[in-house]
Fold this sequence. Notes:
The structure holds 2 protein chains of 2 kinds.
Chain A: H1 3-11, H2 18-23, E1 31-32, E2 35-36, E3 38-39, H3 50-63, H4 73-93, E4 101-104, H5 107-122, E5 128-132, H6 141-150, E6 153-157, H7 167-173, E7 178-184, H8 196-204, E8 210-213, H9 225-228, E9 232-236, E10 247-251, H10 253-258, E11 269-272, E12 277-279, H11 293-309, H12 311-330, E13 335-338, E14 347-352, H13 357-365, E15 369-370, E16 372-374, H14 379-385, E17 390-394, H15 401-418
Parallel strand pairs in A: 3-15, 5-6, 5-7, 7-8, 8-9
Antiparallel strand pairs in A: 1-2, 4-10, 9-10, 11-12, 13-14, 14-17, 16-17
Chain B: H1 4-7, H2 10-17, E1 30-36, E2 41-50, E3 53-62, H3 65-78, H4 83-98, H5 124-138, E4 145-146
Parallel strand pairs in B: 1-4
Antiparallel strand pairs in B: 1-2, 2-3
Amino acid sequence: MTGVARTESEDSAHVLDETRIREQFPILTSMVGDRPLVYLDNAATTQKPRVVLDRLSRYYAAENANIHRGVYQLSQAATDAYEGARAKVARFLHASDPSEIVFTRNATEGINLVAQTFGRSTLGAGDEVVVSTMEHHSNIVPWQLLCEEKGATLKVVPISDRGELDLDGLDVLLGPRTKLVSIVHMSNSLGTVNPVREVVERAHARNVPVLVDGSQAAYHMKVDVRALGCDFYVVTGHKLYGPTGIGALYGRRTLLDAMPPYQGGGDMISSVTFDKTTYNEVPHKFEAGTPHIAGAIGLGAAVDFMTSIGFGPIVAHERRLLEYATNALTAVPGLRLIGTAPQKASILSFVLDGVHAHDIGTIVDTEGVAIRTGQHCTQPVMDRFGVPATARASLAMYNNADDIDRLVGALTKVREVFG
Amino acid sequence: MSDLRDLYQEVILDHNRSPRNFGPLEGADLKADGHNPLCGDKISIAVKVEDGVLTDVRFEGSGCAISKASASLMTEGVKGKSLDEVRAMFERFRQLVTDQDALVDPSLGKLAVFAGVRDYPARVKCAILAWHTLRAAVDDNHDIVSTE
């Protein structure tokens, strides 16, 4: 069961009002030279709705104070807003309790946090961590560092020519030395939506916990960490229509309680003497120092924004647009899509015969179309498909058919230049 | 934004389609590898040197039109030059593609077609990868070059 399949039936009767959605994002009216901006690099970061910008501004203008321990009202208000944002993120991910949400800088830090606490205290020489070929570098390198330190081994689940996870390959790799499976929910370079529920079932059958990288999935589909059954889930705020510099880690409470602290400092302790320091309770144990208070509050506003629209309409809109874009792009002569899994969402990675992705990116930019080109921090995916790089158009709730038409038009200009 | 044709000049497109001095070099004296990890551009450069003069140079690899054409035109431009002259050309080329105000040095010859790159800061690393790699080869530096 995938997130897409789950959410579709919920409220797909509600149709997303394109114009009203676009009006919420001030940047969408900007120009690139003399062309209106077409923003199709959402997998890198999404644009911010006015409610998020206003919330950040209101926090700094009227509520700014350091949180926790302040006895004055302003500090209490800031603390309430920060902890209120934690509760919003917990509801957004359907966690049991806000204490299961740790604020981080981004998804990368969430993964590193788990590697350095859970991983470091669990892994020994000869143990194994399992990832997949389609991971972002941020879900590869932290485990390589850890494995190197511990004398452990990183195992890699293969993917098919369409970019699907090989579940049988996962079964082969799960063994008595497997200590963790860390897998992406939705691939940032292929768009594949992985059957996380099944991955979790297979791993849990062998008592192996599962971390899910939800960087891409969480703004395209409803995420329910309890329904998925995963043990850790990481997200990054700036892809959730929220600010940069803030992310969240969901961790099952029993695991978080047992994990050693991450960084040392203020706020993560309950008592400090030179003889003995005791640590604060979860989740504060993992949040040393003054956190990104405004960022967390802005993220709270962003998840409220998504919830107010609802994933039913968002999924339905993005699915229609993905289909439209898939048809439009495959009709471009010499264009080949990389990543054609039946279960995919909102990402179109492609190569064009005889033209390198970077040249495509530069030329379509002169038409006002922003796409990403390169390896997308997934070098093993590029190696798997035997391409040096791809061009990638990635959709968000505010994109529409006009954006796709502009992209296709810009691609004809690429042909004009390259012949 | 300047005209796209300032960047993708016909000479560049031609060298992209048919790169000169492309392929392995038998009996090379010096070699170096370059890599732009974010783009995926990869290049290997091999040279022959006699009495401090670069007598032959060839390259292999894959990359965008700018990086491939830059490597191709570079191989044509540096043949027969002394190692010191090559180092000086590297500096002049770097100035050509990065300095908005620089006048085009006539000694660069055909390489002047890359002046348009200076208006596209994200593409400077594509144009200069081959040069960094050649520089590493002539300096006998075996670290893989990266222009990220």
